[in-house]
Amino acid sequence: MVSFLLITHAPVGAALLEAVAHVFGGAVPRCEAIDVIADESLADIQARACVRIDAMDDGDGVLVLSDLYGASPCNCASRLSQPGRVEVISGVSLPLLIRAINYRTQSLPQLAEQLISSAAQGVVRIASHAPQNQMFRPIPDAQARHQHQQ
Q1: Closest to 65 measured CA to CA, from 82, 89, 83
Q2: Residue 126 falls within a domain, yes or no?
Q3: Domain housing 115
Q4: What are residue 13's phi and psi, to 5 degrees?
Q5: Counting CB atoms within 10 angstroms of each CB, which of 53, 66, 78, 111 has the fewest?
Q6: What does the pLDDT read at residue 79?
Q7: Number of domains in the chain
Q8: Confidence (pTM)
Q9: Long-range pairs of 115-120 with CB within 8 A, sequence gap ≥ 24
Q10: Which of 52, 46, 55, 97 is nearest to 75 (CA)?
């Protein structure tokens, strides 16, 4: 089973793990975060990440997820890549992380490819005038709108 290490700007990683725990009804095993604070040494972050990766990897590999491509947490994460053992993806979001957890029994390279190819599915335009998959019945006037709200 693939493990996950989030390397993000503080407090993004911790917040994502908190949201994931809410969705799954408790902490998800082998899913951790390193929240990077301003002016933190990249060498220190990388050292912490290496320790966590070694502890988390049970042989199926570790997927490192970062929040913002080109920023310090991502630059640090990119140095951790080891094909077949550590894959790194930038652009982590709650939908992406939940999808990753649901498919973590796939091989690490297969999981990384699936997440990248399906990332856009986590971004959906919500139309206020015609919600997807829902009936929409406009309220004809303000009085009816007021009655509807009560």
Answers
A1: 89
A2: no
A3: 3-121
A4: -60, -50
A5: 78
A6: 96
A7: 1
A8: 0.82
A9: 115/63, 115/89, 116/89, 119/91
A10: 46
Q: Locate 121 and state its tokens.
A: 């599915």
Asked whether residue 15 carries a pLDDT value surpassing 70, the answer given is yes
Alpha-carbon distance values, 51 to 47, 64, 107, 120 (Å):
6, 13, 22, 32
DSSP 28: P
Contacts of 50 (CB under 8 A, 6+ apart): 80
111 CB-near residues (< 8 Å, 6+ apart)? 2, 63, 87, 100, 103, 104
The answer to whether residue 54 scores a pLDDT higher than 60 is yes
- Per the listing, tokens 């997807």 go with 132
Residue 16 lies in a domain: yes
Dist. CA 146–CA 140, nearest whole Å: 11
Q: Is the pLDDT reported for residue 25 higher than 60?
A: yes
Tell whether 96 is covered by a domain.
yes
Q: Measuring CA to CA, which residue among 15, 80, 11 is closest to residue 51? A: 80
pLDDT tens-digit series, residues 64-81:
999 999 999 999 999 999
How far apart CA 36 and CA 12 sit, in angstroms, is: 9
Domain containing 49 — which CATH number?
A: 3.40.50.510
Residue 138 placed within a domain: no
